[in-house]
TrEMBL record:
GO molecular function: S-adenosylmethionine-dependent methyltransferase activity
Matches recorded under CDD domains: AdoMet_MTases
UniProt KW keywords: Methyltransferase, Transferase
Name of the protein in its database record: 16S rRNA G1207 methylase RsmC
Pfam families with a match to the protein in the record: MTS
Origin species: Kribbella shirazensis
Length: 203
C-alpha cells in the first residue's frame, strides 16, 4: 500500500527533523518525521486556522482531530488548562505528538490516541481540526459526524479547509447535519469554519 501521511503505520524510514513555528505569539520547535503530514513546516492551512481564531482560554476537554505531529494540540494545551485529546490514525504522528507535548511542557494535558482508544463517554467543549480531506468525502463525513456527535452542548468546532478542497460545500454540509456553521476567516485559499451544536438535531 502507498505510504500516505494518513497510513496507520508509515512504511518509510522514520527520518526526523525539527520545524520552528510561531503560534499565538509563542515560539515552538516541533519534531516531525517522514510519513507524517507537512513534516517540513507548519502547514499553511493550520497556520491560517491558528491566526484567524484567537487562542482559547480556560479549561475543559478539547479534541484535535487528525493531530499529525501535534502543533494544534500542543498550542491549545499551552494556552489553556484544558485536557486535549490528540487523535490520529497514524501511529508515528501519535508518537511525535506525545514527544512534542513533552517538549512544550504539556505532556500531562495532551493525550495522543488512536480514535478507538478515546473513552466513549468523553464529550468535547471544543474540537479543532485541519481535517484529512484526502481520505475522500464519504470517509471525511463519517469521521466528522463520529466526533461532532460528541461535541458538548454549547460546544464549538473549528475547521480549516482549502477552498479548492471543498471548504464552502463542507460549511453547507455541516449546517445541514445540524451543526450551524459559519465562515470566520478566509486567507491563502483556506476557509476557517466555526460550527456549533444545534439541539435537537434536524430529523
Ligand atoms: C491535514 S492533516 C493535519 C495534521 C495536523 N493537525 C497539522 O495541522 O499539521 C490530517 C491528519 O488526519 C489524520 N487522519 C486521517 N484519517 C483520520 C481518521 N479517520 N481519524 C483521525 N485522524 C485521521 C492524518 O493521518 C493526518 O495526520
Amino acid at each position: 500500500m502507498a505510504d500516505h501521511y494518513f497510513s496507520a503505520e508509515p512504511g518509510s524510514a522514520d527520518v526526523r527533523r525539527t520545524v520552528e513555528a510561531r503560534i499565538w505569539g509563542r515560539e515552538y520547535t516541533f519534531t516531525t518525521a517522514t510519513g507524517v503530514f507537512s513534516r517540513d513546516r507548519l502547514d499553511i492551512g493550520t497556520a491560517v486556522l491558528l491566526r484567524e481564531v484567537d487562542a482559547p482560554t480556560g479549561s475543559g476537554t478539547f479534541l484535535d482531530l487528525g493531530c499529525g505531529y501535534g502543533p494544534i494540540a500542543c498550542a491549545l494545551a499551552v494556552e489553556t488548562d484544558a485536557v486535549v485529546w490528540a487523535v490520529d490514525v497514524n501511529t508515528r504522528a501519535l508518537e511525535l505528538t506525545a514527544e512534542n507535548a513533552k517538549a512544550a511542557g504539556v505532556a500531562d494535558q495532551v493525550h495522543a490516541a488512536r480514535p478507538d482508544d478515546v473513552p466513549e463517554d468523553l464529550r468535547f467543549d471544543e474540537i479543532w481540526s485541519n481535517p484529512a480531506i484526502h481520505i475522500g468525502k464519504p470517509e471525511l463525513h463519517k469521521m466528522l459526524l463520529r466526533w461532532l456527535e460528541r461535541l458538548a452542548p454549547g460546544g464549538v468546532a473549528w475547521f480549516v479547509v482549502g477552498k479548492n478542497l471543498g471548504g464552502d460545500s463542507l460549511q453547507r454540509w455541516l449546517t445541514d447535519q445540524g451543526y450551524p456553521c459559519g465562515r470566520v476567516g478566509s486567507a491563502k485559499g483556506f476557509r476557517v469554519l466555526r460550527a456549533t451544536n444545534a439541539d435537537p438535531r434536524p430529523s
